[in-house]
Amino acid sequence: MIELVASTPCQGLLPLEHGPFTLTELTPGSLTALAPFSGQDAALSRALDAAFGLSLPDVGAATAGGSARVIWFGRGQYLLIGPAPVADLANVAAVTDQSDAWAVVRLSGEGADEVLARLVPVDMRPAVFGEGAAIRTYLGHMTVSIARDDDAKGPGYRIMAFRSMAGTLVHEIETAMAAVAARL
Amino acid sequence: MRIEGKGRIDRSTWYGFTFDGVHYEGHPGDTVASALLAHDVRMVGRSFKYHRPRGILTAGSAEPNALVTVGSGAHASPNERATMVELTPGLQVTSQNRWPSLGFDVLSVNDLAAPFFGAGFYYKTFMWPKAFWEKVYEPAIRRAAGLGALSGVTDPEECEKGFRFCDVLVIGAGPAGLMAAKLAAEAGADVILADEGTEPGGQLTAEVEEIDGMAAHEWAAKLWAELGAMPNVRLMLRTTVTGAYDQGTYGALERLRGHATGHGPRECFWRIAAKRAVLAAGSLERPVAFRDNDRPGIMTAGAVRAYLNRWGVSPGRNVTVFANNDDAHRTARDLVMAGVKVNAVLDARHDAPKSDDFAVIRGAQVCGSHGRKGLDGITYRTASGETTIMTDCLAVSGGWNPTVHLTCHMGGRPVWRDDILAFVPKPGAIPGMVTAGACNGAFSTAACLAEGVAAAKQAVEDLGLTAPDVTLPEAGTEAGGIFPLWAVPGKGRAWLDFQNDVTVKDVKQAATENYQSVEHMKRYTTQGMATDQGKMSSVAALAILADATGRGIPETGTTTFRPPFSPISIGALGAGSKGSGFAPQRYTTSHAATVARNAPMIEAGLWYRPSYFPQAGETTWRQSCDREVGYVRNAVGISDVTTLGKIDIQGPDAAELLDIVYTGLFSTLKVGKVRYGLMLREDGFVMDDGTTARLGENHYVMTTTTAAAGQVMAHLDFVTQVLRPDLDVSVISVTEQWAQFAVAGPKSRPLLEDLLETTLTAEDWPFMSCGPVTVGGVTGRLFRISFSGEQGWEIAVPARYGASLFDALVARAEAMGGGLYGMEALNVLRIEKGFLTHAELHGRTTAFDLGMGRMISAKKDCIGKVMAAREGLVDPGRAQLVGLKPVGEVQQLVSGAHLFREGAKIEPENDQGYVTSVCYSPTLGHSIGLAFLERGPRRYGEKIRMIDRTKGLETLCEVVNPVFFDPEGARARD
Amino acid sequence: MRIPCPICGPRDSREFTYRGAALDRPAPDAGADAWEDYVHLRDNPAGPTLDLWYHHAGCASWLKVSRNTVTHEITGAVLAGAEDKA
Prior knowledge:
The structure holds three protein chains of three kinds.
Chain A: E1 16-18, E2 21-25, E3 30-36, H1 41-52, E4 62-65, E5 68-74, E6 77-82, H2 89-92, E7 93-97, E8 102-108, H3 112-116, E9 134-139, E10 142-148, E11 156-162, H4 166-183
Antiparallel strand pairs in A: 1-2, 2-8, 3-6, 3-7, 4-5, 5-6, 8-11, 9-10, 10-11
Chain B: E1 15-19, E2 22-26, H1 32-38, E3 45-46, E4 53-54, E5 67-70, E6 77-81, E7 91-94, H2 109-112, H3 121-125, H4 132-144, E8 160-171, H5 175-186, E9 191-194, E10 210-211, E11 214-215, H6 216-228, E12 233-236, E13 239-245, E14 249-255, E15 267-279, E16 283-285, E17 298-300, H7 301-311, E18 318-323, H8 329-337, E19 341-347, E20 360-362, E21 365-370, E22 377-382, E23 385-390, E24 393-397, E25 400-402, E26 415-417, E27 422-424, E28 433-435, H9 445-462, E29 495-497, E30 502-503, H10 504-512, H11 518-525, H12 538-549, H13 553-556, H14 570-573, H15 591-596, E31 601-604, E32 607-610, H16 621-634, E33 637-640, E34 645-650, H17 654-661, E35 674-680, E36 686-696, E37 699-704, H18 709-723, E38 730-733, E39 738-744, H19 748-756, E40 770-775, E41 778-783, E42 792-798, H20 802-815, E43 819-820, H21 823-832, H22 865-868, E44 879-886, E45 898-900, E46 913-921, E47 926-934, E48 943-948, E49 953-960, H23 970-973
Parallel strand pairs in B: 1-7, 8-9, 8-15, 9-12, 15-28, 17-24, 18-19, 18-24, 19-20, 33-43
Antiparallel strand pairs in B: 1-2, 3-4, 5-6, 5-7, 10-11, 13-14, 14-15, 16-25, 21-22, 22-23, 26-27, 29-30, 31-32, 33-39, 34-37, 34-38, 35-36, 36-37, 39-42, 40-41, 41-42, 44-47, 44-49, 45-46, 45-48, 46-47, 48-49
Helix pairs in contact in B: 5-6, 5-9, 7-8, 10-11, 10-12, 16-21, 19-20
Chain C: E1 2-5, E2 9-12, E3 17-21, H1 32-39, E4 48-54, E5 62-68, E6 74-79, H2 82-85
Antiparallel strand pairs in C: 1-2, 3-4, 4-5, 5-6
């Protein structure tokens, strides 16, 4: 039998460091788009709660529990990150596998919001783009999802762009990392 | 010369630099202008039109004269203002607009020919012969008139851009701006304070005065530091706010080089979104026009003061002041205090204040200057006659113009104030912006401080914040009396616009020739059209125009100030968008393997796709292409088709949505089947085509063309959100999720059976069927569709396995006598079959034109159906799709060529249609083409002339069925 | 220019694409004049307009944006079609 070998979107491109900034690739497991059918938002939230102990997030926000999280992903659309979806979800929502559609990277380091200020036309300062925030916007010329993704070391940003644009994503962020680092 | 004990720069450190190859030394904190003046270098350039010697006029961003080239080779940056360029070690500075040298300039003969070059000379002098304009006059004028030159090579330096956000943007860090920032910050607002200078204080950096008992510049530095310590304040020095735009958006250029170490970006162009703004941009001193007032050594009085107080440089050893206001007397006072000789203050006012420290000559007007390449004397006129005195520096002040420019960027016109003889901003000209301080006509330091507080109070209260009580510091209240004096009457040329060489006489001439509107005068004389936008000259020019036309200044009005406030390099505006930053590059999962096979890549939208796969021994693309076509027709070919748009459509109303957007019926499509669909725009023309597969009762996957994927997605969102929000359906792009490959050719079935380890019988997998398959344990999707006319399949797997599956497919195909085919072969294969791409679906063709009129289902409405039925769109006389094959000696076909009847004259009235796609068909052994021809389908067999006038080509063709190969379609169904 | 997306909040105009006047699609049998109006004829008002914008780089909503062509003021934005869904 043929054996198919998996590769990640940013394979060979990451990790990278410039000054205090680090860019790494994340492989968070399954990515599942959930679009509740008409009037089924509450039912979807209940189904998520039953399966993963998570509720549907508000617009521009994320909910997390254990290794699972759900981020707001656009009008009437959410992205379940981590576990594979349970079958129940398909009763109340359009369920679409997007696990291979997105390059997922994490930008961190003191002042990482200054890197994003070169690329993103939305205020990404930690005080404004608070914990649990998850938006859709531009990064350079690419449409992306950006979510706060903190760890013990401080604020971080989880950035998702189309898989096919992984090279450009890394290039753009790296250029901005270097430019900001040069000023420090 | 440097003055001991004056200035606030680090005199213990020396920076060497060159000007026109001559070595000089300066200090950290110097500008190129201050460092040159310290060495008594007065002449720094030649003027734009007359090539007259020019010196430094100002100490700031409005400088019209001292434009220089900084750096050399690829790093050369032309037209930099010497007053803004910070001195760095080893800086190379070069003068401009002179040849062979600054001191001896051949084209200074223009100055002698000046009578021919007055206002409107272009329009009068170079009228005939007509042909001379393009070949002779214009190149000559462009060579003679001009500024610095670009290096001619790619700029190796990078710029960056960025986005900032705040509650209150304070523009200018002078006394008004500092107080505004302080109040807004203490109110809890998120504040950005931007200033174009290299240190805070604005005009305070140039003055000897006190605020709260300390030196004003120290007060500014202290407050600046306090603000910088607040977490809600961002301080931005070297940042010029260049434009005010809609909804509180501001452009700002931050200069990063000059103080940096030479690495990192040169400039950053910021877009700042501010809920409120306080404009505290200060004011600009204006000169007075008099005969030969452009000689190096003549500068504004405030600039002389700034060079002395801030940089410890006196621009002259024997200085004369000429003014119509009190403020300029400070220049004399400061010079005398510093031990510099001051001849006199020549004050045009008969009631000017007297001084114990220097002579004041009342009622005096300077009416001429002397010297060759720099000032050595002036002549002034009083009631008792004319007097000539020796002087090497004349400090001139005609009063101050509030820096109103940003308030005009959204169409607001400034308002004239007779009491200060200046234009002030129209209140509310920019929504959300309040003006304060000198830019608002408040000229005393105390008034600036108070207005800054008041403006910020208004801004924060608008935002729902509470303004704290702020104690106003103690400061000077003198604002300086003024008396109108724009130009000293007399013979000779008196300069208004130094950068564009416009004189008082030019403005008067414009009025005489009936260019009486200020906008007409501007264009006729070019006053205010240089890179400084007439900052030093506009008000004086319109005052003279007002006088010449017998109107008042308010009735004459101003010209329009537009962004940017000061020049921005294109590199900064386009930061990040050159080279690979120009647009995202979309790579398929087979990209690396494809590039490794030396395939030339072509751009398809943002995607990169292989043109063809060259093999050893092949010298032209045609050889590769023909071979690849042969793979598909005779064996099996593999092609990455991931780039086609793929959209999952799910929900109870999925079928109904498809019936609305496609001309055909999709609700009747059976699960496991695929159908070709045509999508119209609402005006009845074709938008896109593609196949849609029904994966489940409520689940379809639609494919779009590569080019239209984004457009179709937006269209589906429009239909589901706006036209039919009642539908319960979800659409989501899955283009990125699936790597998809075409497997086409007579040997495609055995290849896939081997790969999938299953049988794909014609009964289970007929043409236009689809279903899930397992590839090496991975669940994929298999579609039996064909864009080549051969038995064809497309297999999709999750993208992480794309590269791996690609390799497996190619290895199998090559083992079976086939292999990869690129876009060229793909195009040949589809033209042979008369299949369409956006060469045919180009936005002006209908289903009728494509021979697909019957695809518009009569059973339902769909987008575009009503308008597609318009008489004109179903007129049999319309150009419709046909095939062409050459039948004469000339065999070449060209897309874009037009079609004419035999014997018809080649003129537009006889145009019968046009060619859209052509190729050489290796299958048929001759060229073929697709075309749109009037009444085409009824003209099979007719001869038609293909004419390409750009190539001088004529090919006689026969009109044929557009399906050249296998018209019955048996091969695809096999 | 910034557009107040009802879902995402105020965003830079680069995130949006403009479509044109916000008009109601006529019924299929509304007649040639009504369709001509819908597809081709546009007012060009100096003053308030109601236009369709697509927040393609944000939530992917179609919006009806009220804008004044003289002052450039944007007086509001609502989800297009939402009024029918309620």
